[in-house]
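Hi everyone, sorry if this is the wrong subforum. Our group has a chain we'd like a structural model of before ordering constructs, and none of us has done structure prediction before. Sequence below.
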Amino acid sequence: MSDNYNVDGILAETTQTAEAPQNAAAPDEGAFSAEGGLPLEVLEVSELSKKGYQLLKENKISDAVDCFAKILEVDENNNYALVGMGDATRKRGSFREAVVFYQRCLVYHPGNNYALFGLADCYKALNQFHKAIEIWEQYLLHDDRNITVLTRVADAYRKVRDFKHSKAVYLRVLEMEEWNPYAIIGLGHLHYDFKEYRDALFYWEKMFQNNKDNVDIRVLTSIGNCHRKLKTFAEGVEFFEKALRKEPYNFYALFGLADCYRGMNLQERSLEYWNRILEQDPRNKVILTRAGDAYRHLDNYGKAVEYYERALNIEFDTYAVLGLAVVAKAQGKFAESSESLKRLIQQDPKNYRLFLELADCYIKTGDKRAAIEVLENFQKLGIRNGAVSDMLERIQS
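Answer:
Right subforum, don't worry. Here is the predicted structure as tokens:
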């Protein structure tokens, strides 16, 4: 897949609000430093805090920072202001800077739920999921039934591929709230990530059945992708078409339809959708290669070569070169094809498809011994592959 698209992992993340839960404990009282005298009245500090948080809600980050900074000038460890500065910098995407404010708050106000929540979200944003889990677990010591935090913990366990703990926490949420969408979607992601496509389908279909009239397009494409992986392509087509009716140019719906028709060997139908993607993204080399394959299967070698070469003009692509080699073989240019395949094998020595195509080249030129040698060389790599074993058995018998 190209850098722009990751179709096998296209189950889009469902995001939750980044704000602290409503039932989080309020920061400790104590608005100013005793050592600093009384440069601000308690009421003034309280008003500045309220104003700062209101400005944050209105996304006026710089103005909010000014309010919190005024408090910190007279009380450098004020928990309202430290959490406010953490929230402000986190909203700006400055997660490492935000971590400093939250940690500073927790030094002087241990167990502050707002600081714990913000700190964990920063670690999550920085892909430091183990640290995020550790902080959220601290939060749950104070509030072990907070669904927002529990789903975040489950998400983090999923990110570190801890299937057992992730599933357990998601199911715990569903015990508390049977139709919680974040837990249901999370379980769909989890099973999909671990290639348990039937189980993933169960949870995605649950989301679909619960909201047929206004279902999120990502649920539709996720169901379609489960069918694509299970090779139940006709059922996949149904859901990708539903998605396309919602968004006629949705990449994932177009890709899913094209790939399903490809799986059903309806190459002309698949071409319709590959080309619709290329209308929007003409330099997507992966889609160019897929379209080239479709033209090749239709014996339209001229078009196939055109698309493979367009892909290669963007960047080297193993499958575009392979496509050209297979076209050459189909046209009887066996020497050209075999030389190209040998070079590819040097670059990608564990790609079984290359060995199969090269062996087929030798078979077509009557060199059975060379074909056997190619397939045996692949087996010497210690990789078991049914297609290679079957071809070798056929040649030898």
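For your construct planning: Residues 18-144 form a domain with the Serine Threonine Protein Phosphatase 5, Tetratricopeptide repeat fold (CATH 1.25.40.10). The longest helix spans residues 42-57.
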